């Protein structure tokens, strides 16, 4: 995109005037900084796939049985049973008896390309919830709990060329599911394995699965990719999240979006899309099409929306269009061809929340959240197939990158966007998925009142500056996926006994937090313990247990109420509701991006 802009004409007087920061954006940045009391700098993150060097323990161990499921595909299940023989069990559901269940060392949930996205996730949800319930019973019986492995094909790219010519990675959402479940249930072992091309038969798939080694030392590698090597057979790669170097500059030329070209934004009247549109106008965009299911901006974006639509020299078309409707999207793009210059870029920011703890997440909570993200991206992709796009940006979420409590469905939707960006790039198309942390003071996160014990909100100006760095090439990820967030790692790791393998690069924060709590605890006991009866000594400690403190995050609970403990707004009820009540948080917006944390 930067090269395409290198010959752009100098900005007109109107464009130069628009390039001055919008008063609403400046005020928003000041207000967000005042609320945070911290600098607004973002960190950039990427996943690196590293060759596994000393992995041990086969996924399918000699002399041990595995339980295999193939959700919604009886033909695949029969083929798996034929290849595996009688040593293992291929079933349509898990056994009810915990003692029988404990006879298996692993549960393999194999995703079929013939099953729809929502149906596959619903099946995985049913299986994972059953195993969680079984885990509690087995632990009381002092029996081993089988590991669960989600086996998919061609959803991740250890190298970008891995996905060249591949089908759309429609089951990539299982990775987001697993990351959230690990966060909600720190002792639960669920891993993800991408076993390579789908074109091969079941025999080749099982050959890859049998070759996989899941441990490095004492730790289980929970995210693995197996890829072919002509010399050595399947090669195993392990995921590691790394902090990317900050870009040298966080600014775009004022004329970056200038010229006879149009840009389309889905979720177009939502807070983040409106802010993004205003920012694009600041950098030369003269023609913007806002697709909106509702056609109305939310209250927290009304000021910026009014500024946007009143700018001189800027053409803004608002079209009521549900991006989940393929025919509607195609018709809308066809209509724009007659009223605007050619569309050269798409920013997909539509989204919807329906939050529930995993235990109370149901199949009916999946489609409303997956639709705007997954179907919306696919419909925009198909409708723009004949267009020469310079950019195709999707607003994903930090929930997909590391997990988020109560948001497994949303993380699944955003995990698809991440893999889809790689898929597009592998086919030579524009593709970028930005895993945003929460934006401050507007959007779903601000309206929901979520505490900042894991993710710290960032002012919108800094977020848009970061987007400029990504589009301008200063921080462009080679993979097509980049996280842009401020993470309180101490709070994030608060309840975890062990740091998941893909987050090992940040394990030092948990170690520092544990040393801090141990030192603080010894000091409290020494100061309060002298000459005080045992029961009286406990009361101040319990009282202090509910107070928030710098860097304490989940380790301090934040308060004795459930909401801060779970990282969710007050009113989120993590218990099964009575009929007609809700156990979750539902937000409906044309643009939530990732600020829903």
Automatic annotation (TrEMBL):
One of its GO terms (biological process) is fatty acid biosynthetic process. Residues 587-597 have a biased composition (Acidic residues). InterPro entries: KR_dom, NAD(P)-bd_dom_sf, PKS_KR, PKS_NRPS_Biosynth_Enz. Residues 261-442 form the Ketoreductase domain. Residues 1-27 have a biased composition (Low complexity). Residues 1-33, 571-597 are annotated as: Disordered. Keywords: Phosphopantetheine, Phosphoprotein. Pfam families: KR. Gene3D superfamilies: NAD(P)-binding Rossmann-like Domain (3.40.50.720). One of its GO terms (molecular function) is fatty acid synthase activity. SUPFAM superfamilies: NAD(P)-binding Rossmann-fold domains. This is Ketoreductase domain-containing protein.
